[in-house]
Amino acid sequence: MLRYFKIIAFLEGISLLLLFFFAMPLKYVFDNPSYIRPFGMAHGLLFIGYIIIAIMMKYEDNWTGKKFGIIAVASVIPFGTFYIEKKYLRNA
Q1: Interval 18-34: pLDDT, tens
Q2: I need a surface site. Which of 64, 67, 74, 78 has the fewest CB within 10 A?
Q3: Rounded to the nearest 5 degrees, what angle is found at the Cα of 78, between the Cα atoms of 39 and 90?
Q4: Cα distance between residue 58 and residue 68, in whole Å
Q5: 3-state SS of the chain: helix, strand, coil percent to 5?
Q6: Please, which residues have CB within 8 angstroms of residue 92's CB and are 6 or more apart in sequence?
Q7: DSSP assigned state of 90
């Protein structure tokens, strides 16, 4: 399960960065909203997968509420999932 969580966390982090630093500037600076929908949909699905697997991992690995909260909040911060992988999941 940890392997899948790391993969989803990485992909979710990449999708958030693409949305924030590629699709949104294209929409608001260059008036080209064509990338918002596909990147937004991919990010939304990966976010849901990330949270579902995090909930499953919480009960499987007996995470504390604080650890789970930090891991969940990191999914909405740019580069947050990369930090989580390095700090919390590297030695797991």
Answers
A1: 999 999 999 999 999 99
A2: 64
A3: 110
A4: 6
A5: 85, 0, 15
A6: 2, 61
A7: S
Residue-wise pLDDT tens digits, 40-83: 999 999 999 999 999 999 999 899 999 999 999 998 888 998 98
Rounded to an integer, what distance in angstroms lies between the CA atom of residue 46 and that of residue 81?
12
Residue pair 75/12 in contact (Cβ under 8 Å)? The answer is: yes
Please provide the DSSP assignment of 56-78 as one string. HHHHHTT--HHHHHHHHHGGGST
| Geometric angle at alpha carbon 24, from 42 and 51, rounded to 5° | 35
Give the residue from 40, 49, 41, 37 showing the smallest Cα distance to 75: 49
Residues 57 and 63 sit within 8 Å (Cβ to Cβ): yes
